[in-house]
Write a structure and sequence with these properties.
heterodimer, A: about 120 residues, mainly alpha, 2 strands, B: about 525 residues, alpha/beta, FAD/NAD(P)-binding domain, 6-stranded parallel sheet, 21 strands, about 30% helix
Chain lengths: ~120, ~525
């Protein structure tokens, strides 16, 4: 990530988010069906590009907070627990629109995490 | 044999007498005439058109759209024997129980009859259409069509409900109910009813005025008249017959012509299914091959909690192979032709997506095509009754000297809200079930207004109500305040409900015929 894009976010928060991101990256691979796979089939933008779009939209601080908010979800996540978290998000209205895509906050956190981890 | 008389070629009597005079030879008129055929009653059917579509008669239906963009009034209804059944697609389903109950919090009036009362007539209508009543059960059809009942979304969700339309095999009223076989039925073709003449006290119909396009005129008299000329014309004729009742016949409620409703739909958004998780039963192309229509509605609890009208969602597959299919076709057709540089574009199309091209080749070789990867949403709602959405009399006259109909069509905030929120709920629930993901259009009023299309389901303009202050006809479809005038067809529906109108209007027509048998035979 560029220096300019980290403005206003402490190094400690970024480091913590990166730790979460690493966990989220492995969690993304467990996601049943795979958001990225589905989006790619439609010519959409896979997870990392979506993650950047989220950061651009909400700002880095909020995006990092989104990832931190889901630390517990990503830590030791199984396909089943992730599915459950995603389903609960959709049913509770915890969603975000990114390029028109309706995604759960858990998925959005994972997409942001995939950016932070690079 | 019944008499089919063509008023244009065989003359129009000055006076015609019958026991029951049915104005309009569409699905409602045919149903009633057939149901009364086993009685001693002499039935007269007055049909404006001939046996096939003709420009001069069809032109009588021209009118103006003064509100939201809508179909051309001269095209969305047909004016010859069989009426609008001549372009009916055959989709049938009984309305839901909640459609009859009314939802005053949303401005939806109750029907003066409930589902239990109408069900026996719906069963008879379904039978006449060659449909099994149990066939409306999605589980029944899922199994028959070779789908697993476990694939029904209802199995996994309290929010989504699968609803099913069966498609009738015989569609035309003239084929379903051949009137020429009925000895007590006389059909007068090219006989345009231009005026309903009330008695001076306004409480009875004395006669109707009948005219031909070549200038002949006559009168038809009967103890009972049934107006069955479709949702727009029923209202127009009653509004225009205003010499005794200046606001129109049966219009003490000021509801005549108002509350024009259709089932309206938009194509929008995109749905990407997760491979193997989206049941093909909900794929519109798969359904078409089976002559069934499975669609997703919202549960009654969800509709009531969210304050939404009935909404349904269908999934229209987008052909991602279209470019390559066309390219291969061009290459095949042009193989033995002199070289054309346009073929270079086709070669590029094939080369640009070898995966898609391989799939097209696979199809040609008889391999099963892969399931679709992308769908367009087909969202349809029932419209809310809106008194400002209405039929009025135009200042323009038709060739018979009658004022034409103007349609001022509007949607309400509730209609727009139902589209937007209904889409969100469907998308959220299917996403929660892991079936796929949605790229959603924002269904703003502007978006809807640009794209919304009606289904030719013209309802509400002479609506039923037990209260003469709220409707035009009563629970027996008799016009309030007029002792011998009935209205048949979907114009009597107080609400549009979930389903298309044809089978329901047939059931009401059967019910009306039974009522007349009890009271007039």
């Amino acid at each position: 990530m560029s220096r300019s894009s980290t403005r206003g976010v402490s190094r400690r928060a970024l480091l913590a988010a990166s730790v979460s991101a690493a966990a989220a990256m492995s969690a993304i691979a467990l996601m049943p069906g795979g958001v990225a796979e589905a989006l790619r089939a439609a010519g959409g933008r896979p997870g990392q590009a979506l993650g950047q779009a989220i950061i651009d939209r909400v700002g880095l601080r909020t995006a990092v907070a989104l990832v931190r908010e889901h630390e517990a979800v990503f830590a030791g996540a199984s396909a089943e627990s992730l599915s459950g978290a995603i389903a609960a998000d959709f049913r509770a209205g915890r969603t975000m629109r990114v390029d028109g895509w309706m995604l759960s906050r858990t998925e959005c956190a994972a997409c942001v995490a995939s950016v932070l981890a690079t | 044999m019944a008499a089919f008389i063509d008023a244009l070629t065989e003359g129009l009597p000055e006076e015609i007498q019958a026991d029951v005079c049915i104005v309009g030879g569409g699905m409602a008129g045919h149903t009633i005439a057939t149901q009364l055929s086993n009685t001693p009653l002499r039935i007269l059917v007055l049909e404006s058109g001939g046996l096939d579509i003709e420009g001069a008669t069809q032109g009588l239906y021209l009118g103006n759209n003064t509100g939201l963009r809508y179909h051309d009034l001269g095209h969305c209804r047909l004016r010859y024997l069989g009426g609008t059944s001549n372009h009916w697609a055959g989709f049938c389903r009984p309305n839901d129980e909640m459609d009859y109950l009314g939802r005053p919090e949303l401005g939806l009036p109750a029907w003066p009859i409930n589902q239990a009362e109408l069900t026996p007539y719906i069963e008879r209508a379904a039978s006449l259409l060659g449909l099994r009543f149990e066939g409306f059960d999605p589980r029944y059809q899922f199994e028959r069509a070779g789908f697993r009942p476990s694939e029904l979304m209802d199995t996994h969700s309290d929010t989504l409900v699968t609803k099913l339309f069966q498609i009738a095999g015989t569609l035309r009223a003239t084929e379903l109910f051949p009137l020429q076989d009925l000895p007590n039925v006389q059909v007068l073709l090219h006989a345009n009813v231009t005026h309903i003449q009330l008695t001076p006290n306004g409480q009875q119909v004395d006669h109707v005025v009948v005219k031909t396009l070549d200038g002949k005129a006559g009168r038809a008299r009967a103890p009972v008249f049934i107006l069955a000329t479709h949702g727009i014309e029923n209202a127009r004729l009653m509004l225009a017959s205003n010499d005794i009742a200046p606001d129109g016949i049966g219009n003490a409620s000021d509801q005549l012509g108002r509350n024009f409703m259709d089932h309206v739909y938009v194509h929008c958004s995109q749905f990407v299914p997760v491979a193997g998780r989206f049941p093909l039963a909900y794929d519109m192309k798969e359904q078409g091959a089976r002559r069934l229509n499975f669609n997703l509605g919202l549960s009654e609890e969800t509709l009531r909690r969210e304050g939404l009208l009935q909404i349904y969602c269908r999934f229209r597959p987008i052909d991602l192979l279209k470019t390559q299919r066309l390219a291969f076709r061009h290459l095949n057709e042009g193989f033995f032709q002199p070289f054309d540089t346009a073929l270079l574009e086709d070669i590029a199309a094939v080369a640009s997506s070898l995966g898609n091209s391989a799939r097209v080749v696979g199809e040609k070789l008889g391999m099963d095509p892969p399931p679709p990867e992308l769908y367009l949403l087909d969202l349809r709602i029932e419209q809310a009754p809106n008194p400002n959405s209405r039929i009025t009399l135009s200042e323009e006259l038709d060739e018979l000297g009658n004022r034409r109909a103007d349609l001022h069509w509007e949607l309400t905030e509730l209609d727009y809200h139902t589209f937007q929120r209904g889409q969100e709920i469907v998308a959220s629930e299917l996403s929660a079930l892991g079936v796929g993901r949605f790229q959603l259009d924002e269904l703003t009023p502007e978006f809807i207004n640009e794209r919304v299309i009606g289904h030719y389901h013209h309802t509400g303009t002479t609506r039923m109500s037990s209260d003469p202050g709220q409707g035009v006809v009563d629970a027996d479809c008799k016009v309030h305040g007029v002792g011998n005038l009935y209205v048949a067809g979907s114009s009597v529906f107080p609400t549009a409900g979930y389903s298309g109108p044809t089978m329901t209007l047939m059931s009401l027509a059967i019910r009306l015929a039974d009522h007349l048998k009890e009271t007039h035979v």
